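Here is one chain, start to finish.
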Amino acid sequence: MDELIERLKARGVVLTHQRLAVLRFLRNHPDSHATAAEIFQDLRQDYPTLSLATVYSTLELLRNVGQIRELSIRGHPSCYDLADRPHYHLLCRRCGRILDVDIPCPSLDEGALQGHRVEEVELYLYGTCRDCLESNH
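Its structure:
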């Protein structure tokens, strides 16, 4: 967390208690892929002056400085994920969970770009998660 805070400070981000709370939530719940409303609901008891608008503006700020990703998965409200490593996402059509998937990105292989510069890749997979598949036995 300290390294992340230092990166944000180096980019000129003012770290208020509320911004730190949102950042801490994302760091402490890396697999949650939470929406702004879910983050707000979780934090508002400890931060009674926190507003949903502050959560949205903090998420936007963190996205703009490249520390989080906003996931726009078909049929789901926008949710947020730390941009700590390249990875993709699977939406389970049975249970609705969004799961991290660590697979290589073939479009970024040497020579596959055909002279283009790729700045960001979003890959959303749709299917059935391992837990749902195993529960059918």
